[in-house]
Design goal:
Layout (H helix, E strand, L loop, with lengths): L7 H34 L3 H38 L3 E10 L4 E3 L2 E9 L9 E7 L12 E7 L2 E7 L1
Antiparallel strand pairs: 1-3, 1-5, 2-3, 3-4, 5-6
Helix pairs in contact: 1-2
């Protein structure tokens, strides 16, 4: 398991993906913009209204479906790479294979017990990034989790 999950390369990859999505939006918008300009010049009111509605719907759809998750991951990366972190050592209680959303990013839930084994008051829930290689953890295994808030930014076997 990696000690450090995030590197500057992750931010570069996110920036590349962001540029790619903006380019995709520009390519989809170009014909509609040309048609809009043409309809405005020719004073075709109905065509102008229809093209404006279609273009607006396309932009809302693409921005929320394609750009939204990329920007959410960007915010997440900036937060976990610059914020404070802490180390927690404990025993793995569970690692969920199913996904959960937190702040617009997909995570797996990792539960670590930091106190007496079996005492649920000592369970700590962490979120492990779905985009990173998944650790092969089994219940009862001792781990050391480096976290920012409850987001895992480093994980080692103790």
């Amino acid at each position: 398991m990696d000690e450090k999950l995030y590197t500057p390369k992750d931010l570069e990859e996110n920036a590349r993906q962001l540029k790619s999505e903006w380019l995709r939006i520009a390519l989809y918008s170009a014909p509609l913009l040309a048609l809009l300009i043409f309809s405005l010049v020719r004073r075709m009111e109905v065509v102008t209204i229809v093209v404006t509605i279609v273009w607006g719907a396309l932009l809302i759809f693409l921005c929320s479906l394609r750009l939204g998750p990329v920007y959410a991951y960007r915010r997440y990366l900036r937060e976990v790479t610059t914020g404070l972190s802490r180390r927690t050592e404990g025993v793995v209680v569970s690692y969920a294979q199913d996904l959960t959303f937190k702040e617009g990013v997909q995570f797996h839930v990792l539960v670590v017990n930091v106190g007496q084994k079996g005492d649920e008051e000592d369970d700590r829930m962490f979120y492990y990034d779905h985009c990173k290689p998944q650790p092969e953890l089994s219940a009862g295994e001792r781990v050391c989790v480096t976290s920012h808030s409850n987001f895992v930014i480093g994980l080692t076997r103790a």
